[in-house]
Amino acid sequence: MYYLRLVLRTPFYAIHKSLGATMLDFHGWEMPIKYSGIVDEHINVRKNVGLFDVSHMGRFEIKGPQAYNCLQNLVTNDLSKIKDRKAMYSPMCYENGGIVDDIIIYRIDMENFLLVVNASNRQKDLKWIVEHSQSADVEDVSDRLVLLALQGPLAQYTLQKIIDLDLDQLRRFDLITTNIFGTECMISRTGYTGEDGFEIFFDSSQVEIWNKLIQQGYQSNIKPVGLGARDTLRLEAGLMLYGNDIDKNTTPLEVPLKWTVHFEKDFIGKNTLMTEQVTRKLVGFEVLEKRIARQGNEVLINGSRSGFVTSGSFSPTLKKSIGFCFIPLQFPTEELIEIDIGGKLYRAKVTSTRFL
Amino acid sequence: MEEEIGFTKEHEWVIIKEGLALVGISDFAQNQLGDIVSIELPKIGSKFKYMEAMAIIDSIKASSDIYCPISGEIVELNEDLLEHPEQINQSPYDLGWIVKIKPLNFKENIKEFTDLMSKEQYDKYVGEIE
Q1: What's the complex ipTM?
Q2: φ, ψ for residue A159 (rounded to 5)?
Protein backbone atom coordinates (compact mmCIF):
# COMPACT_ATOMS: atom_id res chain seq x y z
CA MET A 1 0.00 0.00 0.00
CA TYR A 2 1.27 3.44 -0.84
CA TYR A 3 1.62 5.91 1.95
CA LEU A 4 2.14 9.46 0.82
CA ARG A 5 3.36 11.89 3.39
CA LEU A 6 2.91 15.48 2.43
CA VAL A 7 5.57 17.84 3.75
CA LEU A 8 4.59 21.48 3.64
CA ARG A 9 7.10 24.25 3.04
CA THR A 10 6.72 28.02 3.19
CA PRO A 11 7.78 30.16 0.18
CA PHE A 12 10.96 31.00 2.15
CA TYR A 13 12.14 27.38 2.21
CA ALA A 14 14.95 27.90 -0.33
CA ILE A 15 16.18 30.95 1.60
CA HIS A 16 16.30 28.97 4.86
CA LYS A 17 18.27 26.19 3.17
CA SER A 18 20.71 28.68 1.63
CA LEU A 19 21.29 30.17 5.09
CA GLY A 20 22.26 26.73 6.36
CA ALA A 21 19.26 26.33 8.65
CA THR A 22 18.64 23.03 10.40
CA MET A 23 15.18 22.04 9.21
CA LEU A 24 12.69 20.07 11.28
CA ASP A 25 9.17 18.73 10.86
CA PHE A 26 6.82 20.98 12.85
CA HIS A 27 3.23 19.68 12.60
CA GLY A 28 3.78 18.69 8.98
CA TRP A 29 5.78 21.81 8.09
CA GLU A 30 9.47 21.59 7.24
CA MET A 31 10.63 24.64 9.19
CA PRO A 32 13.97 26.11 10.31
CA ILE A 33 14.65 25.13 13.91
CA LYS A 34 17.91 27.09 14.05
CA TYR A 35 20.43 28.95 11.90
CA SER A 36 23.40 30.11 13.99
CA GLY A 37 22.22 28.35 17.18
CA ILE A 38 19.21 28.64 19.47
CA VAL A 39 21.00 30.49 22.29
CA ASP A 40 22.74 32.92 19.93
CA GLU A 41 19.51 33.70 18.09
CA HIS A 42 17.59 34.07 21.35
CA ILE A 43 20.09 36.51 22.84
CA ASN A 44 20.19 38.51 19.62
CA VAL A 45 16.42 39.02 19.73
CA ARG A 46 16.65 40.25 23.34
CA LYS A 47 19.57 42.56 22.50
CA ASN A 48 19.14 43.57 18.83
CA VAL A 49 16.62 42.25 16.34
CA GLY A 50 15.65 38.95 14.72
CA LEU A 51 13.65 37.95 11.65
CA PHE A 52 11.31 34.95 11.80
CA ASP A 53 9.39 33.16 9.05
CA VAL A 54 6.05 32.33 10.65
CA SER A 55 4.22 31.65 7.40
CA HIS A 56 3.34 28.16 8.62
CA MET A 57 0.69 29.75 10.84
CA GLY A 58 -2.84 29.75 9.43
CA ARG A 59 -4.41 32.95 8.12
CA PHE A 60 -8.16 33.27 7.56
CA GLU A 61 -10.27 36.15 6.30
CA ILE A 62 -13.73 36.55 7.81
CA LYS A 63 -15.89 38.97 5.82
CA GLY A 64 -19.40 40.31 5.44
CA PRO A 65 -22.14 41.90 7.52
CA GLN A 66 -22.16 38.90 9.91
CA ALA A 67 -18.38 38.80 10.39
CA TYR A 68 -18.32 40.72 13.66
CA ASN A 69 -21.19 38.78 15.27
CA CYS A 70 -19.71 35.49 14.14
CA LEU A 71 -16.37 36.25 15.77
CA GLN A 72 -17.84 37.73 18.94
CA ASN A 73 -19.66 34.42 19.38
CA LEU A 74 -16.53 32.36 18.67
CA VAL A 75 -13.99 34.03 20.95
CA THR A 76 -13.94 34.70 24.69
CA ASN A 77 -12.36 38.15 24.44
CA ASP A 78 -14.54 41.16 23.62
CA LEU A 79 -14.05 42.56 20.11
CA SER A 80 -16.17 45.62 20.96
CA LYS A 81 -13.27 46.80 23.08
CA ILE A 82 -11.01 47.39 20.09
CA LYS A 83 -11.32 49.85 17.23
CA ASP A 84 -10.79 49.26 13.52
CA ARG A 85 -7.16 48.52 12.55
CA LYS A 86 -6.42 46.95 15.91
CA ALA A 87 -5.47 43.40 16.86
CA MET A 88 -6.71 41.35 19.81
CA TYR A 89 -5.53 38.07 21.32
CA SER A 90 -8.19 35.57 22.35
CA PRO A 91 -8.88 31.92 23.07
CA MET A 92 -11.67 30.26 21.11
CA CYS A 93 -13.52 27.62 23.17
CA TYR A 94 -15.71 24.56 22.79
CA GLU A 95 -19.07 24.41 24.58
CA ASN A 96 -17.32 22.54 27.43
CA GLY A 97 -14.86 25.40 27.93
CA GLY A 98 -11.88 23.52 26.44
CA ILE A 99 -9.74 25.58 24.11
CA VAL A 100 -10.08 25.05 20.32
CA ASP A 101 -7.17 27.42 19.69
CA ASP A 102 -5.68 30.72 20.79
CA ILE A 103 -5.65 33.22 17.96
CA ILE A 104 -4.97 36.82 16.98
CA ILE A 105 -7.92 38.67 15.47
CA TYR A 106 -7.14 41.70 13.31
CA ARG A 107 -10.13 43.99 13.00
CA ILE A 108 -9.61 45.79 9.70
CA ASP A 109 -13.18 47.09 9.92
CA MET A 110 -16.51 45.73 11.17
CA GLU A 111 -16.94 43.61 8.04
CA ASN A 112 -13.32 42.59 7.47
CA PHE A 113 -11.29 40.53 9.88
CA LEU A 114 -8.06 38.60 9.53
CA LEU A 115 -7.28 35.75 11.92
CA VAL A 116 -3.88 34.19 12.62
CA VAL A 117 -4.14 30.69 14.05
CA ASN A 118 -1.66 28.00 15.12
CA ALA A 119 -0.16 25.93 12.30
CA SER A 120 -1.11 22.72 14.06
CA ASN A 121 -4.77 23.78 14.26
CA ARG A 122 -5.32 25.24 10.80
CA GLN A 123 -7.66 22.54 9.40
CA LYS A 124 -9.51 22.04 12.68
CA ASP A 125 -10.03 25.78 13.19
CA LEU A 126 -11.24 26.34 9.64
CA LYS A 127 -13.85 23.61 10.05
CA TRP A 128 -14.93 24.96 13.46
CA ILE A 129 -15.21 28.54 12.23
CA VAL A 130 -17.12 27.58 9.07
CA GLU A 131 -19.56 25.54 11.19
CA HIS A 132 -20.22 28.63 13.31
CA SER A 133 -19.89 31.25 10.59
CA GLN A 134 -23.50 32.55 10.75
CA SER A 135 -23.34 33.26 6.99
CA ALA A 136 -20.10 35.28 7.23
CA ASP A 137 -17.62 34.51 4.45
CA VAL A 138 -14.66 32.49 5.67
CA GLU A 139 -11.60 32.01 3.50
CA ASP A 140 -8.24 30.36 4.21
CA VAL A 141 -5.74 32.81 2.71
CA SER A 142 -2.64 31.15 4.20
CA ASP A 143 -1.21 30.24 0.79
CA ARG A 144 -1.77 33.71 -0.64
CA LEU A 145 -0.20 35.69 2.22
CA VAL A 146 3.10 35.10 3.98
CA LEU A 147 3.97 36.30 7.46
CA LEU A 148 7.31 37.47 8.82
CA ALA A 149 8.00 38.63 12.37
CA LEU A 150 10.63 41.27 13.09
CA GLN A 151 11.28 41.24 16.83
CA GLY A 152 13.65 42.89 19.27
CA PRO A 153 14.56 46.31 20.70
CA LEU A 154 16.01 47.40 17.34
CA ALA A 155 12.96 46.25 15.33
CA GLN A 156 11.56 49.78 15.04
CA TYR A 157 14.93 51.26 14.04
CA THR A 158 15.31 48.59 11.35
CA LEU A 159 11.81 48.91 9.92
CA GLN A 160 11.72 52.71 10.08
CA LYS A 161 14.54 52.92 7.54
CA ILE A 162 12.33 51.40 4.86
CA ILE A 163 8.88 52.88 5.42
CA ASP A 164 7.58 56.45 5.29
CA LEU A 165 5.07 56.20 8.10
CA ASP A 166 6.32 57.29 11.53
CA LEU A 167 6.42 54.07 13.56
CA ASP A 168 6.06 56.02 16.81
CA GLN A 169 2.44 56.40 15.70
CA LEU A 170 2.00 52.63 15.43
CA ARG A 171 1.22 51.46 18.93
CA ARG A 172 1.12 47.98 20.36
CA PHE A 173 -1.55 45.90 18.54
CA ASP A 174 -2.08 48.61 15.87
CA LEU A 175 -2.39 47.54 12.25
CA ILE A 176 -1.55 49.53 9.11
CA THR A 177 -1.30 48.95 5.39
CA THR A 178 1.78 50.43 3.76
CA ASN A 179 4.45 49.76 1.16
CA ILE A 180 7.78 48.06 1.72
CA PHE A 181 10.10 48.08 -1.31
CA GLY A 182 7.05 48.78 -3.49
CA THR A 183 5.04 45.83 -2.17
CA GLU A 184 1.81 46.40 -0.29
CA CYS A 185 2.13 45.01 3.24
CA MET A 186 0.05 44.88 6.35
CA ILE A 187 2.11 45.60 9.44
CA SER A 188 1.03 45.10 13.02
CA ARG A 189 2.92 45.84 16.20
CA THR A 190 2.57 42.35 17.61
CA GLY A 191 4.74 39.33 18.35
CA TYR A 192 5.42 36.23 20.41
CA THR A 193 8.76 37.04 22.04
CA GLY A 194 8.08 39.51 24.85
CA GLU A 195 10.01 42.15 22.90
CA ASP A 196 8.83 45.10 20.89
CA GLY A 197 8.31 44.08 17.29
CA PHE A 198 6.23 43.82 14.17
CA GLU A 199 4.50 41.18 12.13
CA ILE A 200 4.40 41.78 8.39
CA PHE A 201 1.88 40.21 5.98
CA PHE A 202 2.42 40.36 2.23
CA ASP A 203 1.83 38.48 -1.00
CA SER A 204 3.51 35.06 -1.15
CA SER A 205 5.26 35.92 -4.42
CA GLN A 206 7.37 38.65 -2.77
CA VAL A 207 9.86 36.42 -0.92
CA GLU A 208 12.70 38.85 -1.78
CA ILE A 209 11.45 41.04 1.08
CA TRP A 210 13.18 38.63 3.46
CA ASN A 211 16.61 39.33 1.91
CA LYS A 212 15.96 43.05 1.77
CA LEU A 213 15.01 43.17 5.44
CA ILE A 214 18.20 41.27 6.32
CA GLN A 215 20.23 43.77 4.25
CA GLN A 216 18.54 46.75 5.90
CA GLY A 217 19.12 45.28 9.33
CA TYR A 218 22.87 45.00 8.84
CA GLN A 219 23.67 47.86 11.23
CA SER A 220 21.26 46.45 13.82
CA ASN A 221 23.00 43.07 13.70
CA ILE A 222 19.81 41.42 12.47
CA LYS A 223 19.83 37.60 12.41
CA PRO A 224 17.33 35.04 11.19
CA VAL A 225 15.64 33.16 14.04
CA GLY A 226 14.27 29.63 13.97
CA LEU A 227 11.46 27.92 15.84
CA GLY A 228 13.86 26.77 18.58
CA ALA A 229 14.53 30.30 19.82
CA ARG A 230 10.91 31.27 19.16
CA ASP A 231 9.97 28.65 21.75
CA THR A 232 12.51 29.76 24.39
CA LEU A 233 11.64 33.44 23.83
CA ARG A 234 7.92 32.89 24.32
CA LEU A 235 8.53 30.71 27.38
CA GLU A 236 10.62 33.41 29.12
CA ALA A 237 7.92 35.94 28.26
CA GLY A 238 5.23 33.79 29.92
CA LEU A 239 3.36 33.12 26.68
CA MET A 240 1.55 29.83 26.31
CA LEU A 241 1.82 27.43 23.38
CA TYR A 242 -1.19 25.50 22.10
CA GLY A 243 -0.55 21.76 22.29
CA ASN A 244 1.87 22.21 25.20
CA ASP A 245 0.29 24.47 27.83
CA ILE A 246 -3.24 24.76 26.55
CA ASP A 247 -5.42 22.36 24.55
CA LYS A 248 -8.96 21.01 24.34
CA ASN A 249 -8.66 19.72 27.92
CA THR A 250 -7.70 23.06 29.46
CA THR A 251 -9.89 26.12 29.93
CA PRO A 252 -8.77 29.76 29.84
CA LEU A 253 -9.62 30.02 33.55
CA GLU A 254 -7.06 27.38 34.54
CA VAL A 255 -4.22 29.25 32.85
CA PRO A 256 -3.22 32.93 33.03
CA LEU A 257 -5.87 33.92 30.46
CA LYS A 258 -8.71 35.06 32.74
CA TRP A 259 -8.22 38.57 31.35
CA THR A 260 -9.38 37.33 27.94
CA VAL A 261 -12.72 35.94 29.19
CA HIS A 262 -15.59 38.43 29.11
CA PHE A 263 -18.77 37.14 30.73
CA GLU A 264 -20.67 40.35 29.94
CA LYS A 265 -21.02 39.14 26.33
CA ASP A 266 -22.16 35.82 24.84
CA PHE A 267 -19.71 33.30 23.39
CA ILE A 268 -19.38 29.55 22.89
CA GLY A 269 -18.34 27.96 26.18
CA LYS A 270 -19.60 30.80 28.39
CA ASN A 271 -22.10 28.70 30.34
CA THR A 272 -19.55 26.07 31.29
CA LEU A 273 -16.85 28.59 32.14
CA MET A 274 -19.28 30.51 34.40
CA THR A 275 -20.25 27.47 36.42
CA GLU A 276 -17.31 25.08 36.43
CA GLN A 277 -15.05 24.74 39.45
CA VAL A 278 -11.45 25.55 38.72
CA THR A 279 -9.22 23.09 40.60
CA ARG A 280 -5.78 23.62 39.10
CA LYS A 281 -3.66 26.41 37.74
CA LEU A 282 -0.78 26.82 35.33
CA VAL A 283 2.26 28.32 37.05
CA GLY A 284 5.89 28.91 36.28
CA PHE A 285 8.74 27.03 37.93
CA GLU A 286 12.47 27.31 38.23
CA VAL A 287 14.49 24.13 38.74
CA LEU A 288 16.98 24.67 41.57
CA GLU A 289 19.40 22.07 40.27
CA LYS A 290 21.31 21.80 37.03
CA ARG A 291 18.85 19.82 34.97
CA ILE A 292 16.36 20.92 32.35
CA ALA A 293 12.75 19.89 32.97
CA ARG A 294 10.85 19.13 29.79
CA GLN A 295 7.27 18.67 28.62
CA GLY A 296 5.77 15.53 30.12
CA ASN A 297 8.00 15.33 33.21
CA GLU A 298 5.89 14.58 36.30
CA VAL A 299 5.42 17.14 39.06
CA LEU A 300 5.31 15.99 42.69
CA ILE A 301 3.83 17.94 45.56
CA ASN A 302 4.73 16.70 49.05
CA GLY A 303 5.82 13.45 47.46
CA SER A 304 2.66 12.70 45.53
CA ARG A 305 2.40 12.91 41.77
CA SER A 306 0.04 15.72 40.91
CA GLY A 307 0.63 17.03 37.42
CA PHE A 308 2.93 17.46 34.47
CA VAL A 309 5.39 19.93 33.05
CA THR A 310 3.69 21.45 29.99
CA SER A 311 6.73 23.38 28.70
CA GLY A 312 10.27 23.39 29.97
CA SER A 313 13.61 24.65 28.75
CA PHE A 314 16.82 26.38 29.60
CA SER A 315 16.38 30.16 29.76
CA PRO A 316 19.22 31.77 27.80
CA THR A 317 18.50 35.15 29.43
CA LEU A 318 18.32 33.96 33.05
CA LYS A 319 20.68 31.01 32.56
CA LYS A 320 18.27 28.86 34.56
CA SER A 321 16.04 25.88 33.94
CA ILE A 322 12.46 27.19 33.73
CA GLY A 323 9.04 26.00 32.65
CA PHE A 324 5.29 25.85 33.15
CA CYS A 325 3.32 23.15 34.99
CA PHE A 326 -0.13 22.56 36.41
CA ILE A 327 -0.49 22.41 40.20
CA PRO A 328 -3.54 22.40 42.53
CA LEU A 329 -5.29 25.80 42.70
CA GLN A 330 -4.52 26.49 46.35
CA PHE A 331 -0.79 25.76 46.15
CA PRO A 332 1.19 28.94 46.95
CA THR A 333 3.94 30.46 44.81
CA GLU A 334 7.53 30.48 46.09
CA GLU A 335 6.90 27.01 47.58
CA LEU A 336 8.95 24.02 46.51
CA ILE A 337 7.80 21.20 44.26
CA GLU A 338 9.72 18.27 42.83
CA ILE A 339 10.06 17.29 39.19
CA ASP A 340 10.81 13.76 38.00
CA ILE A 341 13.46 14.00 35.30
CA GLY A 342 14.51 10.61 34.00
CA GLY A 343 13.50 8.82 37.22
CA LYS A 344 15.32 11.19 39.57
CA LEU A 345 13.63 13.94 41.58
CA TYR A 346 14.85 17.53 41.34
CA ARG A 347 13.67 20.46 43.46
CA ALA A 348 11.95 23.41 41.81
CA LYS A 349 10.40 26.65 43.03
CA VAL A 350 6.91 27.77 41.96
CA THR A 351 7.00 31.18 40.25
CA SER A 352 4.90 33.46 38.12
CA THR A 353 4.60 32.43 34.47
CA ARG A 354 6.32 35.68 33.52
CA PHE A 355 10.02 35.07 33.99
CA LEU A 356 11.35 38.40 32.73
CA MET B 1 53.25 8.27 18.42
CA GLU B 2 49.89 9.97 18.04
CA GLU B 3 47.12 8.48 20.18
CA GLU B 4 44.41 6.86 18.16
CA ILE B 5 40.80 7.98 18.52
CA GLY B 6 37.95 5.47 18.47
CA PHE B 7 34.20 6.02 18.30
CA THR B 8 31.08 4.21 19.52
CA LYS B 9 27.78 3.98 17.64
CA GLU B 10 26.37 6.21 20.39
CA HIS B 11 28.84 8.94 19.37
CA GLU B 12 31.24 8.82 22.29
CA TRP B 13 34.94 9.06 21.44
CA VAL B 14 37.77 7.34 23.31
CA ILE B 15 41.49 8.01 23.37
CA ILE B 16 43.75 5.69 25.38
CA LYS B 17 46.48 7.68 27.09
CA GLU B 18 48.88 6.34 29.68
CA GLY B 19 46.61 3.38 30.42
CA LEU B 20 43.51 5.54 30.91
CA ALA B 21 40.54 6.04 28.57
CA LEU B 22 39.78 9.69 27.89
CA VAL B 23 36.12 10.02 26.84
CA GLY B 24 34.03 12.72 25.18
CA ILE B 25 31.33 13.08 22.53
CA SER B 26 31.95 13.54 18.83
CA ASP B 27 31.71 16.74 16.84
CA PHE B 28 28.73 15.24 15.03
CA ALA B 29 27.00 14.56 18.36
CA GLN B 30 27.57 18.05 19.77
CA ASN B 31 26.30 19.54 16.53
CA GLN B 32 23.16 17.39 16.62
CA LEU B 33 22.49 18.31 20.25
CA GLY B 34 22.92 22.02 19.65
CA ASP B 35 23.68 24.41 22.50
CA ILE B 36 24.71 22.35 25.52
CA VAL B 37 23.53 24.09 28.68
CA SER B 38 24.32 21.67 31.50
CA ILE B 39 25.92 18.36 32.31
CA GLU B 40 25.48 15.87 35.15
CA LEU B 41 28.79 14.09 35.78
CA PRO B 42 29.31 10.78 37.60
CA LYS B 43 31.19 10.61 40.90
CA ILE B 44 34.90 9.85 40.98
CA GLY B 45 35.35 6.23 41.98
CA SER B 46 32.04 5.07 40.54
CA LYS B 47 32.19 2.06 38.23
CA PHE B 48 30.30 1.56 34.99
CA LYS B 49 29.79 -1.39 32.71
CA TYR B 50 30.13 -1.20 28.95
CA MET B 51 27.41 1.07 27.47
CA GLU B 52 25.88 1.89 30.84
CA ALA B 53 24.65 5.51 31.13
CA MET B 54 27.27 7.44 33.12
CA ALA B 55 26.50 11.13 32.49
CA ILE B 56 23.65 13.25 31.19
CA ILE B 57 24.00 16.19 28.85
CA ASP B 58 21.19 18.72 28.61
CA SER B 59 21.13 20.71 25.42
CA ILE B 60 18.59 23.42 24.95
CA LYS B 61 16.29 21.02 23.08
CA ALA B 62 16.96 17.58 24.55
CA SER B 63 18.54 15.47 27.31
CA SER B 64 20.98 12.76 26.28
CA ASP B 65 22.70 9.99 28.16
CA ILE B 66 26.43 9.56 27.71
CA TYR B 67 27.31 5.86 27.67
CA CYS B 68 30.41 4.26 29.10
CA PRO B 69 32.49 3.09 26.12
CA ILE B 70 35.11 1.21 28.15
CA SER B 71 33.97 -0.56 31.32
CA GLY B 72 35.89 0.67 34.31
CA GLU B 73 36.19 3.19 37.09
CA ILE B 74 35.89 6.96 36.81
CA VAL B 75 39.20 8.44 37.95
CA GLU B 76 38.95 12.03 36.74
CA LEU B 77 36.21 14.46 35.68
CA ASN B 78 36.30 17.58 33.55
CA GLU B 79 34.80 19.78 36.25
CA ASP B 80 35.18 22.90 34.07
CA LEU B 81 32.15 21.61 32.18
CA LEU B 82 29.90 22.24 35.20
CA GLU B 83 30.44 25.98 34.74
CA HIS B 84 31.17 25.90 31.00
CA PRO B 85 29.23 23.08 29.36
CA GLU B 86 29.48 25.00 26.06
CA GLN B 87 33.10 23.80 25.86
CA ILE B 88 31.66 20.53 24.53
CA ASN B 89 30.22 22.49 21.58
CA GLN B 90 33.29 24.60 21.08
CA SER B 91 35.99 21.97 21.49
CA PRO B 92 34.50 18.45 21.56
CA TYR B 93 37.86 16.64 21.21
CA ASP B 94 39.93 18.80 23.52
CA LEU B 95 38.51 21.16 26.17
CA GLY B 96 35.20 19.30 25.95
CA TRP B 97 36.51 15.95 27.23
CA ILE B 98 34.14 14.53 29.86
CA VAL B 99 35.74 11.77 31.99
CA LYS B 100 38.83 9.62 32.35
CA ILE B 101 38.19 5.94 32.95
CA LYS B 102 40.57 3.35 34.36
CA PRO B 103 39.77 0.13 32.45
CA LEU B 104 39.04 -2.66 34.93
CA ASN B 105 38.97 -5.93 33.11
CA PHE B 106 41.47 -6.26 30.31
CA LYS B 107 39.87 -9.36 28.85
CA GLU B 108 36.55 -7.54 28.31
CA ASN B 109 38.25 -4.23 27.61
CA ILE B 110 40.18 -5.63 24.65
CA LYS B 111 36.94 -6.49 22.88
CA GLU B 112 35.55 -3.03 23.71
CA PHE B 113 38.65 -1.38 22.26
CA THR B 114 38.61 -3.43 19.08
CA ASP B 115 34.86 -2.76 18.59
CA LEU B 116 35.46 0.98 18.42
CA MET B 117 35.21 2.53 14.98
CA SER B 118 38.20 4.30 13.46
CA LYS B 119 37.82 7.94 12.38
CA GLU B 120 37.22 6.81 8.77
CA GLN B 121 34.65 4.19 9.80
CA TYR B 122 32.88 6.66 12.05
CA ASP B 123 32.71 9.37 9.36
CA LYS B 124 31.17 6.80 7.03
CA TYR B 125 28.70 5.71 9.77
CA VAL B 126 27.68 9.32 10.41
CA GLY B 127 27.36 9.96 6.68
CA GLU B 128 24.81 7.16 6.53
CA ILE B 129 22.81 8.67 9.42
CA GLU B 130 22.75 12.08 7.78
Answers
A1: 0.81
A2: -75, -35
